[in-house]
Amino acid sequence: MRHALRLLASPSNLGSSPGLNPAPLALLPPIPLYRRLLRAQRKFLDTEKRVLGDGYVKSEFRAHRNVENPIHIVGFLKEWQMYAQQVEGDSWRGDKLDSEKIDKMSDQQMGQLYELMQAIQKKGRGVPDDEI
User: Fold this and answer.
1) Does the model's pTM come out above 0.85?
2) Angle of the 107-125 helix axis to the 47-63 helix axis, nearest 10
3) What's the 3-state SS for 19-68?
4) pLDDT, tens digit, for every residue of 85-116?
5) Cα-flanking dihedrals φ and ψ of residue 95, to 5°?
């Protein structure tokens, strides 16, 4: 009898909407996340992108070393973990930034994004590094 009931039971999606995202993964602590980022970039990116990415990861983690606001820390770790998942899954190629994320950026972050865009465009045109 139990066996028959088990066969009739099936998971239900009652109370959930069809567009819900899967449950997010638990956040990694900063040091393991930092190591994962560097390993992922070493494994999945070509040399030029890896050098650029490694420098950026190192400077961002160094700049956020003494942050004490827990909301800021969680947001920082969450975004970097999502980046690591994208690099490992190769789903970032050809992707565009969300307009919501751009709207949330500070003026300083927008300036950094613009400088990054210029550096990438100059690399694409073959401009030497000393002119960048």
Assistant:
1) no
2) 160
3) CCCCCCCCCCCHHHHHHHHHHHHHHHCCHHHHHHHHHHHHHHHHHCCCCC
4) 888 886 666 667 778 888 888 898 888 888 88
5) -80, 150
